[in-house]
Amino acid sequence: MTMIQVRVRSIAWEAEGILSFELVDPQGGRLPAFEAGAHIDVRMPGGVSRRYSLCNVPGETRFWRIAVLRTPESRGGSRTMHEKLRPGDLIEVSEPHNFFALDETAERTVLVAGGIGITPLLAMVHRLQQLGRRFELHYCTRNAARTAFASELAPLLADGVVRIHHDNGDPKQGLDLAALLREPRRGTHVYYCGPAGFMNAAKAATAHWTAGTVHFEYFGAEPLAAPETSGESTMEVRLAKSGRTIPIEPAQTLLQALRAAGVDCESSCEAGVCGTCLTPYSAGDIEHNDLILNDDERRTEVLVCCARVRQGPVVLDI
Fold it and tell me: Where are the beta strands (DSSP E) in 212-307?
């Protein structure tokens, strides 16, 4: 993953618990262009990376904008961004990557955001406006105080293109996703992003839609919990390119075993939702715990951050 240095030009309060950060080239140059749905990885002190969606107008190269929700259970990402970063600071970030690309040919697009999940969808709104495409955005938040980018969305809210739904802490008072998405429409694509409960509801509401018309991205997924063990023996992971063999305990993920053996491996979310640690493999029975690979992909690829070994040896192509 190529890393570049950027400067924090400004930090703005967007809503309760949410700050946005404008990032620029330290020398005043242009940043790489990005597409709607793209994200960057921000490297924190200690080498940990966190993934944040770019939410300004796609194609913008003068600056990038990300927004970060401060979470009580933060593992260092949001807390560091909120408490440590100041305008003028230099940080390392990746070039843009996109696992949540917008299909710009769709006749109609339905965007559904839950909380901080608005960030990639906001960039999609900008892009769909540029293209003159038909779309609607449903933005679900607890209340007005927690609704980021409300002023930016206000003109579209007045036009009826954007609808904001407040549940005041009770999901039953919020948007009825099942009703909204009950009837698949020809030429329509759906995009959704938000916290775990919201994602589960949206997944259920779109289960009957045609494959390829529903797109999603997870945020805030929790790291994989350690399983209960019953004295299983240590197994092996073989590295095809280096010829090394390393041990792996039943409770370890592949990433944990690799790190314990001093093997360098890029990772970001460590919850199986971003794809940064995607690794080819050629043998072994793997317990896949990711949220993005399909069954065909899992035959040859694995997200090592959350996968464990059922039966070894597992042969990784590294």
Answer: 214-218, 235-239, 245-248, 278-287, 301-303
